[in-house]
Amino acid sequence: MAGRIKTAVLVSGGGTNLQALIDAQADGRIASAEIALVLSNQAGAYALERAARAGIPHETVLRRELGSREAFEARIVSLLEEHGIGLIVLAGFLAILSEDFTRRYDHRILNIHPSLIPSFCGEGYYGLRVHEAALARGVKVTGATVHFVNEIPDGGEIILQKAVPVEAGDTPEVLQRRVMEQAEWQLLPMAVEKVAGKLLAGEERA
Ligand code: GAR
């Protein structure tokens, strides 16, 4: 197999999903992708520390410094091109990308969302808010979804999903942790390997 798909991971916060990808690459569960760049839209995000520790190039891109969304995305695109990126993973990246951006990388952007889409998803549903909404609705099962990113927030084709039980007495924090441990940290590396493997196979045929 020729090479690996150079992959960028976009983050905004703690980066536990980034860590799951780094660990999966280290132990061989990810063999078709190489994490070649970590981009944060938040200064000082702990995810950047994780990238540094793993020796992965990392950059911060701040929308408020660049002014418009167009300028913000143009900076991201230039970094992606500079690093030869063929696959993008949104791992707790809390900015919504424009249609121009998602079209440019059609079927090359993955996102992890902490619910079973189409429940508790779309604009305004991110991080702890998703688990608060699930608990408020009283669902007995929740989970995580990895999907392709298109112009509709959380609306792209589903790649993998895993269900996780809600338990009596769960707080949003407890439920968030269970969804991460039982679903997100397993699902995201599996999805990256699946998509990167297909991209590699396609590139070999081309
Ligand atoms: C994760 O639970 C991820 O699924 C969620 O943010 C958290 C980031 O944690 N993403 C969304 O809600 C996207 N709509 P992490 O920084 O520790 O990976």
Task: Summarize the entry for a quick read.
By secondary structure, the protein is of the alpha/beta class. The chain is 42% helix and 21% strand. The mean pLDDT is 97.
Describe what this molecule looks like in 3D.
This protein has 206 residues and is an alpha/beta fold. The protein has a domain at 5-113 and 149-160 and 187-200: Rossmann fold, CATH 3.40.50. It has helices at 16-26, 46-53, 63-66, 69-82, 99-104, 128-137, 172-205, and strands at residues 5-11, 33-40, 58-60, 87-90, 109-113, 141-148, 158-165. Strands 3-2-1-4-5-6-7 form a seven-stranded mixed beta sheet, with helices on one face. α1 packs across α7 (172-205) and α6 packs across α7. The protein is globular, with a radius of gyration of 16 Å. The mean pLDDT is 97. Glycinamide ribonucleotide (GAR) binds next to α1, β5 and α7. Glycinamide ribonucleotide binds at residues 11, 13-17, 47, 91-92, 112-114, 126-127, 130, 180, 184.
